[in-house]
What does this fold into?
Amino acid sequence: MQSLLNVTTVLSVLLIVLVLLSVRRAHIRVEYSLSWLFAAGGMLVLSRARPVLDYVTRRFGIPDTPLTLFLIAGSVFLIMFFRFSVIISHLRDDNIALAQRVAILEYHIQSIRAHEE
Amino acid sequence: MIRAIGPDSLLIIVPAWNEEGAIAGVVRAIHRHVPGAPVLVIDDSSKDATLERAREAGAAVLPLPHHLGLGGCVQAGYKLAYELGFQYVIRVDGDGQHDACDIPRVFERLKESGCEMVIGSRFVNGGHPHTDAVRGLGIRFFRWVLRPILGKPVHDPTSGFVGVNRAALDVFSRSFPLEYPEIEALVVLQRRRFRFEEVPCKMLPRTTGHSSITAVKSLYYIAHVLLGVFVNVLKYERRRRKSGLGG
It folds into this structure.
């Protein structure tokens, strides 16, 4: 169990470093990096707070403490994937509407030019 | 450049993506069978010479800045047609499988019936065009699904040969399914109490290129469209109840 918690700690720290580097290089916008930082920070805290994990395990009748960790991590990342799917869907809709508008405006510009000539 | 002239102004739109082999023939056939009607080819960012071939054949072109997929491509045409004031729009696919000689029949039916949409159907009047097994199964499945939703049978729900009047154009220019649009578009119209009719049309074999729909994609298509149909039904039912129209 302890080794699993240590691995989770290392992975959480790596994720935090990766996200911060990506923000610095402008690969991720700050508003989208916050979800990852909160998720990684949460996993880091949980992996270092064994009594909290044990309490949650007993409280919800989960048979195993490692399973609790995986359930919490899985839930957090599923919520994040869902959130990003919503964001991507909005961006895709906006992108299509913009591309259509650009094409139509270009068409109108060409029409005006042709009319002037 | 195209202009809407007269009370029955008709625009024929042709969504095309990598159809350099077929597009010129499609445009010329339309000009032959519907002389005087402007043709707008919406080029969905083709990698080949579709755009040039369409221009050479005498069509107006609307080049999209990047690939949007069929729904986005068709909707761009609807938006432009609506802005230019056209009363009727008929969509013909750019692969040459729709016979342009059927366009006048679809147009006449649109005007006479007052329906918001007229579908050029391969199956009405007992037609049995060749379709592969998975696609044929999909069409039969969607006929069965759509029958209670639309309140009347639709023989060819996946047909891309579709004419719409200005009322439908108004709706579609604001809201149009962006992927695999044909079936969902029917539901969108029906939820607004719009009417549709089918007229028989021929389906020609493909002479160039190849269909982008494979057997695996057909299964994805069925799942995607099924979800879209039910989302549309639920969305409009909710709106209907909110506006107090529900029984």
User: Anything to note?
Assistant: Strands of chain B lie at 10-16, 39-43, 60-63, 88-91, 117-121, 162-165, 196-200. The helical segments of chain B are 23-33, 50-56, 70-84, 103-113, 133-150, 166-174, 181-191, 215-242. Chain B is about 45% helix and 15% strand.
